[in-house]
Amino acid sequence: MKKTMLFLMCILYSCFAIAQSVTKGIHFENITLQQAMIQASCSRDSINLIFLDCYTSWCAPCKKMSEEVFTQETVGKFFNNRFINIKMDMEKGLGPDIVKKYGVVAFPTFLILDSEGNEVGRVLGWKESDEFIKQVKQASDITNSSIYLKSVFMKEKSISAAGNYLKILDKSFKNKESSQFMSQYIDSLDLFEMLSADMWKYIRYGASVRGCNVIPFQRYIERNKAYLSDKVGAEIVNITLLKSYNSTICDYFLHSQKEYMPDKEDVLKAIEYTKILASGTENAKYMIAKIADLYLCGDISGVIKMYGFMAYRNLSLNNQARIEEIYLSIKQIPQEKHDYYKKIKREYMERRLPSV
């Protein structure tokens, strides 16, 4: 039965190839990813890769690519001769599964896949036609893929190999993979070589990304704080640690939404260090540490008092949302307190608005 289906798909593929020859722009086939993988596996010519346009209905750059770039004859010639082209709305049908499987975090994302559905490369965002072709050509080269570059690192275990792998992850917005890789190998890489190779940005990011284990980065920076402060500046190191401790505290409260939950001991340390680094301030990180401190001491009434106090703070919308998210995660706070907070916050904001 499987052989029959494969044979039929191969016949259909030859028909699609004829249709492509009369299409000026990119010929997108109305098939599923699974069907595209079958086509790629039975292709007798060089078209054994899949180009998948991951878009959403509300994405303006997606529409711009579709209307202004995909329709160009030069673009069509390049893609139709090299790929089985398909497009999927990431919010409909199997779209959400694609988002989860390939870690799509921005739109548009253009995936290059092999006949087994493995990612060869990706390109993100709106591009002019020439630049788009150039980047897709680079992404189609297996030696530029994250899988290949990671295998090179596993053989060499060198700073340059680690840097090449991290650069492709960074370019693909694979922040979680980047953080996981660094946390696993950070202790085996020479500190001097890492700074010389401009890898501090990966350490800095890995130390604060939420939903991932930031503790190895914290400990690495703490152990080498004097050296790092001398090289990149004490203020930058302290800001990095403060962000890292804040991520630890937030992940403790919001772990149900993430794959990672820090240990209570690490949270207590993060609270104490935040008090030191943010002493005398009323910024969001310091306030989150105070809330966590009260909560872990079992002082729920103190947490609720802080809740009301938060409504009068001039915080950014992102910080307000983060703190409100933490409060909503605390089951001991009754619903009427959440309603009261919303009420006094609304009244406070209305008083601050200028009269017309």
What features would you describe in this structure?
The protein is α+β, with helices and mostly antiparallel strands. Helix content is 62%, strand content 7%. The chain has 19 helices and four strands. The chain has helices spanning 2-20, 33-42, 60-69, 73-80, 95-102, 129-139, 146-156, 159-171, 175-185, 191-196, 200-206, 215-223, 225-232, 234-253, 264-277, 284-296, 300-310, 317-329, 335-352, and strands at 49-55, 83-89, 109-113, 119-124. The protein has a four-stranded mixed β-sheet with strand order 2-1-3-4, with helices on both faces. β3 and β4 form a beta hairpin. The longest helix is centred in the last third of the chain and has 20 residues, at 234-253. Mean pLDDT is 85; it is low at 16-22.
List the keywords.
356 residues; 62% helix; 4 strands; globular; alpha+beta
Strand order of the largest sheet: 2-1-3-4
Alpha carbon gap, first and last residue: 73 Å
Number of helices: 19
Biggest sheet, open or closed, and with what strands and sense? Answer: 4 strands, mixed
Total count of strands: 4
Order of helices and strands: HHEHHEHEEHHHHHHHHHHHHHH
- How would the global form be characterised? globular
Helicity, in percent? 55-70%
User: Mean pLDDT across all residues, rounded?
Assistant: 85
Unreliable parts: 16-22
| Broad structural category | alpha+beta
- Using the CA coordinates, give the radius of gyration: 25 Å
Q: Could you tell me the strand content as a percent range?
A: 5-15%
Oligomer kind: single chain
